[in-house]
Structure formats: structure tokens, C-alpha cells
Amino acid sequence: MIQLVAFLGNYGKEYENTRHNTAWLFEKSLPFSSSLSYQNKFKAEFAAADYEDIVRKLNGGELKALPENAPKKIYFMKPLTYMNLSGDAVGEAARFYKIPASDILVVHDEIELPPGTLSLKWSGGLGGHNGLRSIKSVFGTPDFWRLRLGVGKPSDGNVAEYVLGNFSQDEQITLSQVFVKCTELFNKILTAKDMENLLKSWSKVKLG
User: Fold this and answer.
1) Percent of the chain clearing pLDDT 70 (strictly above)
2) Which residues are designated catalytic?
3) At 33, is the secondary structure helix, strand, or coil?
4) Which candidate in 13, 65, 86, 192 could, as Cys together with 131 as Cys, close a disulfide (CB 3.0–4.6 Å)?
5) SS3 labels along 76-106
6) Are the C-beta atoms of residues 189 and 120 closer than 8 Å to each other?
7) Which helix (H) or strand (E) is 51 found in, with range?
8) CA–CA–CA angle 161, 149, 51 (5° rounding)
9) Could you read off the pLDDT of 46-73 as tens digits, one per residue?
10) What are the DSSP E strand ranges found in 99-173?
């Protein structure tokens, strides 16, 4: 079961609406976001919440049946280390709460997926994502869950400039639609008895 959710991004006003901060933008869109009490902890903005309460908020106040092994608490974090050192923050929190890599969900932007696409992935390659590379390095394994939000690739090949660039107006519209679908998946992740079953239908979902 997922005990820790890490939303990867870069700290600072200049990065707020960039493609690399897609995960932070998604976190803001979640129905429970405003109820979280974030503190500066573990080199991150960090919040602890009641697992049942989060599921209720995802379902309009109704409590869905939870798996028997659902934890009492769930933790959320937005590393403040900048993207390339995300593992420092995630590792620190995981060590403190004794959370294995397999119980961590990392939410991140993904250039290997086109805009309007989302994907649930277990382990595997890192797709050149420096945040994922940092987390793998700290834990010594790629065996953690990823919720991937497609941002597409740049036409000129300049990836660094592209991911640190702002979304176009059309992309922002698409993103808001993706977030609705992504919230549905997020809910299923927290209430699934077997995460492996979700991979069959959520390994790659494109809007439209």
C-alpha cells in the first residue's frame, strides 16, 4: 500500500507554472490539498494526513471500502531540494517512517508521454528523468511506483529549456482535463486491493 506520495518539482516562483512542476500543479488540484498542513521538514514541504480522511475527500465525503492493509496515516511531500536532488528528501522521510521504496508513489512530469496522457508505472526505466534517477540512487532500487504526467518533447531537442518553460494556453486547458482523470486514478490507487491490477487499465491513458 502507498504510504508516501512525493510530488516532484522545483521550488521558487519562477518555476511555478513550468512543465517540470506538473506534479506540484496536480497536487494543488486535488480535493484534499487545501486541508493539508504542510511543514518544512525532511528538506521538503511535508504533511501527514489520516488515510481514511483523504479517501473521503476524494469521494465527496463518502468513505469507500479500504483494503485490509491500508495504513492509518499517509504522507505527502514536495521536495525543496530542486529536481535533481529529490531523492535526498524522499529518502530522509522514508527512513524516518521506515517506509520501503515499494510503498512510495512518485508523481512527476514525463517527456516520453505526449500532453494529455497519464500513466501508472511500477519500477523499470527512468526515461532520463533526473528526479527519478536521484530517488533510485538513494534507495538503491528502481522498485517504486510512478504516476507519470505527459508533457511531450521539444521540437528543437532542448529538453532542459523545454521542461523549465511555461505551459501554453492550450496546454493548460489539456492539463486541467488530465488532472480530473488523474484524480480518478489517484483515488483508485489509495483504495485498490491489488495495485498490480491497476496497471492493466492505467499503464497508458490518453484523453480523447
Assistant:
1) 100
2) 20
3) helix
4) 86
5) EEEECCCHHHHHHHHHHHHHHHCCCHHHEEE
6) yes
7) helix 51-58
8) 130
9) 999 999 999 999 999 988 788 888 999 9
10) 104-110, 117-122, 145-150
The rounded distance, in Å, linking the Cα atoms of 115 and 46 is 28
Spell out where the chain has E strands: 4-7, 39-41, 44-50, 73-79, 104-110, 117-122, 145-150, 205-206
Cell numbers 517512517: residue: 97
For the chain, first and last CA: distance in Å?
A: 31
Q: How far apart are CA 66 and CA 18, in angstroms?
A: 35
CB 126 within 8 A of CB 141: no
Q: Give the separation between CA 37 and CA 47, rounded to whole angstroms.
A: 6
Query: Would you report the helix, strand and coil content of the chain in percent, each value rounded to 5?
Result: 45, 20, 35
Phi, psi angle pair for 24, to nearest 5°: -65, -35
Q: How far is 149 from 19, CA to CA, in rounded Å?
A: 10
C-alpha cell recorded at residue 175: 492539463
